[in-house]
Specification:
The chain is α+β, with helices and mostly antiparallel strands. Helix content is 40%, strand content 15%. It has 27 helices and 28 strands. The protein has a 7-stranded mixed beta sheet, with helices on both faces. This is DUF1156 domain-containing protein.
Length: 902
């Protein structure tokens, strides 16, 4: 039985819903901090299409397609009908597995459908995140005893009301206890706790010896409506060697102490530190060295309040506030350990070679306990202790072990989200009404800042109240109209699954993409505090073989980008390729005979795809379907590296396959794509999407053979057939250029016209240029001058950017661009181009290409106007070219005559 995903996928609906509303996954990611999200629209579609059949009868195909389209209109669209169809197609009982579950976006969609899902991840932080999203909400907690604090009893109208009500009570209790535990260290101002404090690292000036703070911006609040801007500056007294921050109305009037310096008329590389006492310039290398040597000191710069009108105000810290911050340092030294193996202050070390992932390590941080000022660290230590104590109290009150784990887990989710805005990487942001910055400015990389903001224990961005309210809002959204069954979540390696063979109807997974994100390294900060918060209730999370006390990485399947010395780093390309192949082999064993392994993968580089296909082949799988969707265009919790992902269906390779010959396989691929093209067109796939979808039938054909041999009997690389598949789409589309088949044009012109047909003037990823060059059987260098760099991608050049020299060997597209460039100069200039090309007004391919470019480019595009001008003056250009040729001939004749006379 073929599965739907092998023949059809709602690509258009997935693309339309991936960046907004129910299908974006934004509500789901608000629950817990993790580094990658699979849009729920794509996760839902991949799950449904992997479980539904693909009937032979066209009417049934259409009926199921319409059912899936209806399902893609909302979180629970066509819920009952889908359940019935999935049950009918899976008489043994529908089950799914995701061995790279991450935060659980894919298993969540199985759980919502009422399908039993198993979620596995190697990271204990991800296991916790997945449990809170895919398992705990679906359990029935209504029979649990009341909490021993807060309002007793809740009005239960659904099974999730109890969980939501208890979380509201628990979070309020944590806030009250934490406030009591830390109030001595955060003095009130005008009867209220301050919102927080701006800190900066100060270093000793290498010229005058005075310590001065490193601050990158003096702006506090930009002007907004009738409200005036607010700024500050550092006033220094050289005689006493002291400084203070002065708050002023208006925009900043002075340069900050950390800025781009200019010496001898040249810009000094990197941000330099400028001493406020003597103006001595400390280059990036110098002030970085001082911090690495431990000469940096944390200095309190400003206090921030929220007044009665909810406006943020700024002032100098009082003496009492400075003493309170110092008292926190003393108190931290007396905090007892959580266990003999778990000290209060995190001593987990930052592994060598992590400078590009863990920013603070560049500036001297050695452990994850170095990430905060002492008062922040004390605050988190006591917060973790409160969560442990509450876990013990809930257990003593008779609540079940699972419910206590769930409640403490959600509390820890707040802690993890709060960490994003509670380290030296949490910069103060003046825009947006004054905020606390996210330490993950670039997804998966922890930033460091010399000046940073410490949120207090009251209200405002970054505080427990703010973050817990955010988590509760996410829970209300997720628990609303909740349907389904809990997923089974466990920690484990995708290379050693613990399930019997042929257990699952489908494996649906989103594996790590090569070297995009170092999941474990980037989440080790969370892990150090998760261990402390859940020391009593989730003790297994603290078990690790990592020599630095962080998450184990021996079997993590990534390629690790290393900066600095890392002699023992094992996460190489070879490591990734071998382990991902092992993981795919485990999936092949775990899926039933009539099931599929569905892999969601997104990467632009042909080389990465080549390695992925080798891993799939090595695992004994055959790709049987491939479907594109634009799922990354909005950026997701940081920098987005790709826009289009493929949802690929695979099956175990059949036994007893014969060897194939390259020529015959190529012919089969072209025939298969030609056969499927009408369906793709009928379903509304865009040409660019067809190029990516073509990978499925191409790999399906290749998978019919144990190996493919060339004419000499040598093995052919499986990756060879991907560019061929793309070229086959071009053939199947039978693209015509002014009634001329595209295939009739020269290779360079064919490449250019096809690119314009696909993308026009739109910017594309550089990897797409490499793919198109491969599909055209051209070296990248042969077309690089036609598609230039633009906006972190590539774009087809304008005629004004064309600098090629036209002659009788020039491709038609070169002549067309040169004519458009010369059109502003008049007929004479265009005639000279046409004459140099040795083409005429009757050259079918030249003028067909010009007509195509004029039609395909936007009407307001300067080149569209230029090409239209060329077409309208075609006859005149021809006459001018003839005149130029005649004149050249006459000059040559005269020169020849003169030579004879000599």
């Amino acid at each position: 039985m073929s599965r739907m995903i092998e023949r059809w996928f709602p690509s258009a609906e997935v693309s339309a819903n991936s960046d907004k509303g129910w299908g974006s996954g934004n509500s789901e990611i608000s629950l817990f901090m993790w580094f990658a999200k699979r849009p729920t629209a794509q996760a839902k579609a991949a799950t449904i299409c992997s479980l539904l059949p693909w009937p032979d009868e066209v009417g049934e195909q259409t009926r199921l397609q319409n059912l899936v389209r209806e399902a893609m209109t909302g979180r629970y669209g066509a819920w009952g009908e889908l359940q019935a169809e999935i049950a009918k197609a899976n008489p043994q009982g529908a089950t799914t597995l995701d061995p790279f579950s991450g935060r659980g976006m894919i298993p969540l969609e199985s759980a919502r459908l009422g399908v039993q899902a198993s979620a596995v991840d190697y990271s204990p932080v991800a296991v916790l995140a997945s449990h809170l999203l895919t398992s705990a909400p679906f359990e029935d907690w209504s029979q649990e005893p009341d909490l021993p604090f807060g309002d007793l009893g809740h009005l239960l109208t659904s099974r999730t009301d109890r969980l939501l009500g208890d979380l509201e009570t628990l979070f309020a209790e944590i806030q009250a206890r934490h406030t009591a535990a830390m109030s001595d260290f955060y003095p009130r101002s005008n009867g209220a706790f301050p919102w927080g404090y701006l800190w900066a690292v100060e270093i000793p000036c290498q010229e005058c010896g005075h310590a001065f703070p490193l601050i990158g911006s003096y702006e506090l609040m930009p002007a907004r409506g009738s409200r005036e801007a607010v700024a500050f500056y550092i006033a220094a007294d050289r005689a006493s060697g002291t400084w203070e921050a002065v708050v002023t109305p208006g925009k900043p009037s002075r340069a900050p102490t950390l800025t781009n310096a200019v010496e001898n008329g040249k810009k000094v590389p990197g941000k330099s530190a400028i001493c406020v006492f003597c103006s001595h310039v400390h280059s990036l290398a110098v002030h970085r060295r001082l911090l690495q040597e431990g000469q940096g000191r944390d200095a309190l710069v400003l206090a921030a309040d929220i007044d009665a009108k909810s406006q943020k105000t700024f002032r100098q810290p009082t003496d009492e506030e400075r003493k309170a911050a110092a008292a926190a340092t003393t108190a931290l030294g007396f905090e007892p350990a959580f266990s003999p193996f778990l000290p209060a202050i995190p001593d987990e070390g930052i592994a060598p070679g992590n400078n590009n992932i863990i920013g603070p390590s560049i500036y001297g941080a050695k452990t994850y306990g170095d990430f905060m000022v002492d008062r922040q660290t004390l605050s988190y230590v006591r917060l973790a202790r409160i969560i442990n104590e509450l876990g013990d109290e809930l257990t003593a009150a008779g609540l079940s072990r699972d419910y206590v784990r769930a409640l403490c887990g959600y509390a820890t989710a707040v802690v993890v989200k709060k960490l994003r805005r509670s380290t030296r990487g949490a910069r103060f942001q003046s825009k947006g009404g004054a905020q606390v910055g996210d330490l993950f400015v670039n997804e998966g990389s922890i930033t460091f800042s010399h000046d940073f903001f410490e949120s207090g224990i009251g209200d405002g961005p970054g505080t427990w109240k703010s973050i817990s309210d955010n988590v509760l809002a996410a829970c209300r959204n997720l628990f609303s109209d909740l349907r389904g069954v809990p997923a089974s979540v466990q920690r484990g390696s995708a290379t050693a699954l613990s399930y019997p063979p042929k257990t699952f109807s489908a494996v649906v997974t989103d594996p790590p993409y090569d070297q995009m994100i170092a999941y474990a390294d980037a989440s080790d900060l969370f892990y150090t505090w998760v261990k402390r918060c859940l020391h009593n209730t989730w003790p297994e999370l603290a078990v690790t073989a990592d020599p630095h006390g962080c998450q184990d990485k021996s079997q993590e399947i990534i390629v690790k980008r290393v900066r600095g010395e890392a002699p023992n780093e094992h996460r190489t390309r070879e490591h990734y390729d071998n382990l991902i192949a092992d993981a795919f082999a485990q999936m092949r064993l775990a899926v039933r005979d009539d099931g599929v392994v569905t892999i969601v993968f997104g990467h632009g580089e042909p080389e990465v795809w080549q390695r992925l296909l080798h891993s799939i082949e090595k695992a004994g799988l055959v790709m049987t379907g491939s479907w594109p969707a634009n799922t990354e265009s909005g950026g997701q919790q940081g920098k987005a590296n790709i826009e289009t992902t493929l949802t690929m269906a695979c099956r175990p390779a059949p036994a007893g396959r014969p060897a194939g010959r390259k020529g015959a396989v190529e012919a089969e691929i072209k025939a298969e794509i030609k056969r499927r093209y009408p369906d793709w067109e009928r379903w509304g796939l865009a040409p660019a999407d067809m190029l990516m979808a073509a990978a499925g039938p191409a790999m399906e054909v290749v998978g019919r053979y144990s190996e493919v041999l060339d004419a000499k009997g040598g093995p052919v690389d499986i990756h060879t057939f991907l560019p061929l598949a793309r070229a086959a789409v071009q053939e199947a589309m039978a693209v015509e250029v002014n009634n001329q088949p595209l295939s009739a044009f020269d290779a360079r012109t064919r490449f250019a016209l096809w690119w314009i047909r696909l993308y026009g003037r739109q910017v594309q990823a550089k990897s797409e240029l490499r793919w198109q060059a491969l599909a055209s059987s051209l070296d990248l260098a042969a077309v690089r001058d036609l598609v230039g760099d633009a906006d972190k991608g590539v774009r087809f050049i304008t005629s004004r950017e064309y600098y090629g020299k036209v002659d009788g060997d020039s491709a038609a597209v070169d002549v067309a661009l040169a004519l458009a460039a010369a059109s502003d100069e008049g007929l004479q200039a265009m005639g000279e181009v046409l004459a140099a090309s040795e083409r005429g007004v009757d050259d079918t391919y030249l003028w067909s290409a010009i007509q195509f470019l004029a039609d395909r480019l936007p009407d307001n595009d300067p080149d569209s106007i230029a090409f239209t001008r060329v077409l309208r003056t075609r006859a005149g250009i021809g006459s001018a070219a003839e005149a130029v040729t005649a004149s050249a001939f006459e000059r040559a004749r005269r020169q020849g005559a003169q030579l004879k006379l000599m």
